[in-house]
Amino acid sequence: MYDFVEVVAGVLCLISIIGVTVFILHVSHTEGNYQQKALNNGLAATIVEMKQTGKYSAKSIANILDIKTEDVYDILDAEEK
Length: 81
Known about the structure:
- Helices cover 85% and strands 0% of the residues.
- It is an all-alpha fold.
- It has a domain at 32-81.
- Helix 1 crosses helix 2 (43-53) and helix 2 (43-53) crosses helix 4.
């Protein structure tokens, strides 16, 4: 028979695996939405929107949209002027 501690450890392990899976799916879905917006609305508008949320740095925006970080900085600088 299993010990109480083993059962609790197993349940916690399953909960953590489910939590990580849900988080990964959420992040990939969010990034996919931004990639689609970049295609539909234009790259500059999407980059500005992502930056305004406060959740993304220029480097993370570049990684999500698969462009160079320098291009992100150039677009943000142009939008500020």
